[in-house]
Amino acid sequence: MLEFGFFDTFGRAEKSDLAGAYDAHIAAVQLAENLGYGYYFFIEHQNAKYPVISSPSVYLAAVARATSTIRIGAMVFAVPFHHPVRLAQDAAMVDQLSRGRLEFAIGYGTRAPEFDPWHLDFGKRREIGVEVIEVVLKAWAGDTLDHHGTHFQFTGASPQPRPYQQPHPPMWMGAHSETSMDYAADMNFNVAQNLDTEPVATEKFAYWRKAWHARGHAGVMPRTLFVRHVHVAETDEQARAEAEPFLREGILGQAGVARAVSLRPDEKNPAMLEIARIALETSRSYDFWIDEGLAFIGSPETVARMLREQQARMGYDIFCAHHQITSMPSDMALRSLRLFGEHVIPAFRSAVPA
Prior knowledge:
The protein has 13 helices and 12 strands. With 354 residues, it is α/β, with parallel strands linked by helices.
């Protein structure tokens, strides 16, 4: 049965009252939980010029204490920015505070300007990230930690607490490249996709499934999660009229479009070049959003139909609705969240045989 999540981002206008914004977003999570969303995710960024979640564990601790059933996590933790033992301890504490509701997702980062101010080597982000995860898993596995790697050294460390979930929270990989898909297959991790067009994401999920089977893992295959922009209104016409001006800012917003045309040479890998292309095309054409399966815009009935058709083609397990479309007013995004929860999610539940 398809499960549903709420993918959250902050708007630029919220910078003037971040304390109020945090309260409003946590209230939105509470609403999503009451409406039947099973997951809540957001992404970590560093050194951004706009409001972001830069301390995921701190924010997740607040979300954990304000909710009771919804599963929560950063999608993703940008792991090269983290001290691995502190990350392991902080995430385990969130898992304890939430009584086992943490989903632990990892990524390496894609934007070189986020790395530069910290003097982190953008070219070694994957190498660093893999070692961070190695240490995190060791820290969760025992009372004493010894690790002697390239980037981190620990002898007789005593990380605590251990996670509430044993042996550890579900592990996710925000994967764009084949290298990351291979790593997720090696590690038996769940995988998530967010920015690729539907055909490309379908190919990547298929590549990961084939790679996972080739490893000969025992047990049930890990899950796949897909994020799409969603705007629901009472009618198709109203939904398009409300969403189109904000969709035309591009999938990464106006700042993302500017970044797309100014990638540095060390950022120009195939995955980033494709994301840059998508950012540009989504700023030029509403139809590109719809034709490429990047957004579901319409009445509850239309969105449910589009979602059902796409899920049948792709076979993902969790669908995350991203209601905050670039600079869309938060009250408009919240109405979409409510309509999706009140009408789209129940449409899938009622279709499941008793």
